[in-house]
Amino acid sequence: MDARVTVAQTTKAASQREADEPHSLVVRFGLDQPLAMDAGVSLAPLTIAYQTYGTLNADKSNAILVCHALTGDQHVASDHPITKKPGWWWIMVGPGRPIDTNRYFVISTNVVGGCMGTTGPASLNPATGRPYGLDLPLVTIRDMVNAQAMLIDHLGIETLFCVAGGSMGGMQVLQWAASFPSRVFAALPIATAAKHSSQNIAFHEVGRQAIMADPNWCQGRYLEEGVFPTKGLSVARMAAHITYMSDEALQSKFGRKLQGREAPTFSFDADFQIENYLRHQGTSFVDRFDANSYLYVTRACDYFDLAADYGGSLALAFKGTKTRFCVVSFQSDWLYTTAASRAIVHALNAGGASVSFVDIETDRGHDAFLLNEPEFIATTRGFLDAAARARGLPPAKGSSRTESPEEETL
Amino acid sequence: MDARVTVAQTTKAASQREADEPHSLVVRFGLDQPLAMDAGVSLAPLTIAYQTYGTLNADKSNAILVCHALTGDQHVASDHPITKKPGWWWIMVGPGRPIDTNRYFVISTNVVGGCMGTTGPASLNPATGRPYGLDLPLVTIRDMVNAQAMLIDHLGIETLFCVAGGSMGGMQVLQWAASFPSRVFAALPIATAAKHSSQNIAFHEVGRQAIMADPNWCQGRYLEEGVFPTKGLSVARMAAHITYMSDEALQSKFGRKLQGREAPTFSFDADFQIENYLRHQGTSFVDRFDANSYLYVTRACDYFDLAADYGGSLALAFKGTKTRFCVVSFQSDWLYTTAASRAIVHALNAGGASVSFVDIETDRGHDAFLLNEPEFIATTRGFLDAAARARGLPPAKGSSRTESPEEETL
C-alpha cells in the first residue's frame, strides 16, 4: 500500500475519533442543561472540549478566553493532536509571550459545530446512535458564545479578563462584548467584521457547493458510508485560502515561479508554485477537518450580523459598555477589511466605549493575525499590560521577554 | 419529465452540436495548413468559426477584429445560438454604436480551444473519430492569435484597422500588437494584463480542480460517456464570477438581502440573494459551455506572460511599434487591476508607442467592460473616430447616434 495513503487514512481516522474522544479537557452538559439555540431548538446533551494554559488566580480575575477562527480549534498553544504541529497561536500565547501564561489563565474551546470534541456534525447523536450530520441544528456565532459562557460558568469565572480572537474568533469577541458586557473586562477583536458582506457570503457559498457537489458527501451521511468528500472539501479550502492572502503576498511569495521545472509542461499539471501550494493546502486540510463542520462554521459566519439584533444599530450593541476594546486590522486584508474594522470602531465610539484602533501596515493579508507581525504583537502586549494594570493584576512571576517571538526567526 | 430538465438537456445537446456544426461562418484549414502551436506540435486540420458584421470596404482598410474573453465567443452583436440572448457586446457593436457597423467591418472568431465551432476539446478529432478531450495540445494566447491571423489572411486583409477586446480578449490584443505590429493600425486592450498574476492563476486553478474533482469529468472523456461534469463546472463558474464583480457592487446589489423570505431558514438553502445569484450563474453556464474548454482557456491565460517572450522586457514587445494604443482599465476591477494596465502603458511608453490611457471610475468591477459605462463607451467611440480619421476612413453612411446606448435604459 502507498505509504502516503496509509498516513492519510490514519490521520482521517484520528480526525474522526477526535470528534468524540478528543485529546482535550471535556465538560459534558446533560439533558437538564440544554443550549438554547438561535435556530429555535435546544441542544442537549452538549459536550465542550477545551484547553487551558497557565493558572487561574485565587480571585479568578486573570482568565483570557481565546476564540478560534473558522477552521481553528482549542489547541492554541500546544501541539495539534492530529497534525502534531504547534498550536495555531503559539506565537502569541505562552510563557513570556504577549498573552503570557505566566500571568494569565488562557482558556480556549472548540466551537459548537466544530470537529475537535465539542458537539458538532461529526459527533455521535445519542438520540440516534449515528453522527449528527445535518441533523445538528444550524449554529450561530451567538450559539458558540453561549456555549462558551456555559463553560465559563462551570469554571466558576464571573468576569473574563479578556476575550480575544481573530477572524471568526473576532466575531465571537464582539458577540461576547454585546451579550455579556459585564463579564468582559477587555476585548480584542482582530481582523474581523460585525457582519458578513455579500462577497464574504459568496466565497463561503462556493466552498459549500464544492463540498455538496462531491458524490462522497452523501447528503452529509458520509461517515456512515465510510467515505469522505475529500475532493470537494479540498476545493473549498483552496478557494478560501486565496482570500487569506493578499495579492501582493502571493505575488512576492510565488509570482509566476515554476514548481521544480525549468519550463512549463503544456499540461494541466501544477506547473506553477502557487498551484502546488494551493493543492497542498487543500489535501492537507481534509486530514484534519470534517466536511460537514465546514458547512456549519461557514454558515455561522454568513448569518453573523450583530447590528441586526439591535434594531440595525451596531452602536446599540455596545451602548454604555464598560469593556475596554482594542480593534486590530491589517491593511492588506481584503477578506475582513480595514473598513470593516473601522465600522466597528465607529460603533464603539458612538456607544461611548473605550476603544483603541490599530490598523497595521503589512502585505500579508488576512492571515497576518497568525504570523509574526511585530507591530501586532507589540500592540497585543501593550493593550493587555495596560488592561492588567487597570484590573490590578500583578506582573508575571518569572516572566521574561527573551522568549518573545520578536527576537526569533520563524 | 421535469420541464426544466428537458430544457437543460436540449441546450446541453445544442451546445455539443455547436462544437462541430456551429451557427456561424466557418473556414477549414486542411492538413497542408497546420497551426504551429507553442506546445511544439502542429494542429491540422483546423476549423475556425467566426461572425462578421458590417461591410468590408474596397481597400480592406476598415476591419476591426474583436477578441472575446474567457467564456465569450464570436457572437458579439447577434443572438447567441444556444441561449438566444443578445451578443455579449451588443452595447458596443452595431449600427451607430461605438464600434459602428455602418462604418467598420467587424470580425470575431471563436478562439482555438473554445467550444463554439473553432477546434477545441469538444470537437471531433478526425484522427480518432472521438472528441479531442485532453488530446488537444494545450493552447496559448499566441496560438489563438496565430489562428486568427490565418483567418485574416484567408479574408485577404493585410492590416486590421483595429484589434479590440477585454479581459482574455485584451491579452489577444496585446499579442496581436506584439506579433504583427505592421498589421494592427490601432489596438484597444481593455481590463486586461500583460501577464497572469499569482492570484489570477490561483483562482483559475481552483476552477480546474473543481471540474476535475467531478467524477463525471471522466478524465476528460465525459462526452463519450454521455455524462457531463455539471456540478464541478458550476462551482468553477461561481468562484470565477466573484472575481468579475467588485466588493462594492456585490454589496450595493445584494448586500445581505434575503431571497424571497422574511427571515433566514437556518438551513443550507440559498437564504441570501447573492447565493441564489451565484447558483444561477453556475447552473446556467453549464448549458452553454464545455468543461474541457474551460480548462483550456483558463490555462491559456495562466501561461500568458508577454514579456517572457522578449527577454523579460514588455517594452521590447512593443519597441518601435507604429500602432496607436488606447488602454482602458476600471478602478474597481480587482481581477485585472488598474496597476496591471498601468504596467502595459509604461511599457508602451518605454517602447515609444502612441498610447492613451483611460482609468474609468466605476464600482462595477471587471465586468464593467460588458456594461453600459458611459465614459468607457465615449472613450471607445472617440479613440476609433480619431484613428479612423488618421486611417482616412470616411464617416459612416447613414450613421446616427440615436441608437447609442448612452440614451438607452439597460
From TrEMBL, chains A, B:
Coiled-coil residues: none
Active site: S167, D333, H366
Annotated residues for binding of substrate: R237, D367
AB hydrolase-1 domain ranges (all copies): 63-260
SUPFAM superfamilies xref list: alpha/beta-Hydrolases (SSF53474)
GO CC annotations, alphabetized: cytoplasm
GO biological process terms on file: homoserine metabolic process; methionine biosynthetic process
Domain of life of the native organism: Bacteria
Signal peptide extent: none
EC numbers: 2.3.1.31
Transmembrane residue ranges: none
Family indicated by similarity: Belongs to the AB hydrolase superfamily. MetX family.
Assembly behavior: Homodimer.
Function: Transfers an acetyl group from acetyl-CoA to L-homoserine, forming acetyl-L-homoserine.
The protein's name in its UniProt record: Homoserine O-acetyltransferase
Gene (UniProt): metXA
